[in-house]
Design brief:
The chain has about 425 residues and is mostly helical. It has one domain. It is about 60% helix and about 5% strand. The protein has 14 helices and 5 strands. The strands form 2 sheets. A 3-stranded antiparallel beta sheet has the order 1-3-2, with no helix packed on it. Strands 4-5 form a two-stranded antiparallel ribbon. Strand 4 and strand 5 form a beta hairpin. It is globular.
């Protein structure tokens, strides 16, 4: 909003400092600070209101150390994350940018679904919450909205280098100094290309999967791409939801993931850095940095209260929205195939649940008695249990919750570093 106001006034008003709004770096740092301040100061009031209305977490006794002490801790704290993300993003982002609008829609859409789920659990006293199929419907619908919008929007393009300035749409950048200056020309094109890690020419085109030629091939490619988007949005938001089981776990991992995506978005939206790194140049994606900066500040502010021992839980209000923001941001900067690495924690948490259920059912049918692979799933709870029969027994003794969370953060940092260096390792 303020950026759009600047764009309107810059030709009429020469106000000192107004020009700073043209810089993504300035608006990104401002978004971090503003969202952090909102989360810290408004967060305390929201937590107190939740506590007064007795909006506390219902805890099932799963035999985990310190678990029952969390009973009554205010939940639905994801509202803090939503408010602290949306306000700075709206104020400092370009509201004419399709990527900004999609991230705002994602935050509100999945935040609303999560809020309904938490409301049913807390106020209706229904531990099941919103029926799983309605969550899936909501996630699939969001995936469709994102996919169709990216297909239809003229802003969602890849800017590719061409040999000469003979094209209708192009831009140029000058490299080198003095007599060594080179002018490069670029043309915008709609494409289903994306980034694939560890490959020399690290681009994958979904059109390669379409068994047709010509315009039909292009349309089928977009259908495949939209199906992939739906799957990613659903998988990552559910993976984040499963990871949200310890104080500060999902929040801390999401800060690391969001920061990595912000770096990748900045590089992809900058013509000089993208050309130097030989990655897809995606004009207009620089504005994603603003929303992710607000997202990061909101998460850090929320972590102030969510770190062990937690004063508030985010609930599905926060976890579904967090996963959606991460998934949609990765899709928009063409880094969705890096998600298994970058979001490795979410991926493994989800995988542990799937493996546990499938293997338990398989052994129960074959041997008449189900066998567990892990002591308990999602995976983070495996490290809290002891004296449970399972194929994987390490660690023998239960680890403290704070140690488990910290180690997961360290792993998330390691995965983030690997994700970034895949830009050059091919």
């Amino acid at each position: 909003m303020l950026y759009n106001l600047y764009e309107y006034l810059k030709d009429f008003v020469d106000f000192p400092g107004l020009g700073l709004f043209q810089y993504i770096s300035f608006r990104a740092f401002s978004a971090v600070l503003l969202s952090l301040a909102i989360a810290l100061f408004a967060g305390k009031r929201i937590i107190n209101k939740l506590a007064k209305k007795q909006i506390g977490e219902e805890i099932r006794d799963l035999g985990l150390e310190g678990q029952m002490q969390k009973k009554g801790t205010p939940t639905m704290g994801g509202v803090i994350i939503l408010v602290a993300t949306l306000i700075p993003a709206i104020l400092l982002g370009d509201l004419t940018n399709v990527y900004v609008l999609l991230l705002l829609v994602t935050t509100i859409w999945l935040g609303t679904i999560g809020f309904i789920d938490d409301y049913i659990k807390v106020f209706k006293k229904n531990k099941e919450g919103l029926h799983g199929k309605f969550k899936i419907y909501g996630q699939v619908t969001l995936g469709l909205i994102v996919g169709i919008t990216l297909y239809a929007s003229e802003q969602s393009v890849i800017r590719v280098a061409v040999k000469a300035a003979s094209h209708e749409i192009y831009s140029e950048v000058v490299e080198g100094n003095g007599d060594n200056k080179n002018t490069l020309y670029f043309q915008d094109e709609k494409s289903t290309k994306t980034t694939i890690p560890f490959i020399k020419n690290n681009e994958f085109d979904y059109a390669w999967l379409a068994p047709f030629k010509g315009e039909t091939k292009e349309k089928i490619a977009w259908v495949i791409y939209i199906i992939v988007i739906i799957f990613i949005v659903t998988a990552v938001s559910n993976g984040t939801n499963l990871t949200d089981g310890m104080d500060g776990l999902a929040t801390g991992v999401s800060v690391i993931t969001g920061t990595t995506l912000a770096i990748l978005a900045y590089l992809s939206g900058n013509i000089i850095y993208s050309n130097y790194l030989q990655i897809l140049y995606l004009p207009n994606t620089g504005e994603i940095v603003i929303v992710l900066a607000a997202f990061i500040g909101a998460l850090i502010g929320f972590l102030w209260y969510n770190s062990y021992p937690a004063q508030v839980f985010m609930g599905d209000t926060g976890s579904l929205a967090i996963g959606g923001i991460i998934a949609v941001a990765a899709i928009m900067i063409k880094k969705e195939l890096l998600i298994p690495i970058l979001c490795g924690i979410f991926f493994v948490e989800s995988l542990s649940v799937i493996v546990q259920r499938l293997y338990f059912k398989y052994t129960r049918i074959k041997y008449g008695k189900g066998v567990r692979v892990f002591k308990m799933t999602p995976l983070h709870h495996h490290f809290q249990k002891e004296d449970v029969q399972a194929l994987i027994q390490n660690p023998r003794k239960a680890l403290p919750e704070a140690k488990i969370v910290t180690r997961f953060w360290i792993i998330a940092i390691f995965l983030a570093v690997i994700t970034i260096i895949t830009l050059k390792i091919r």
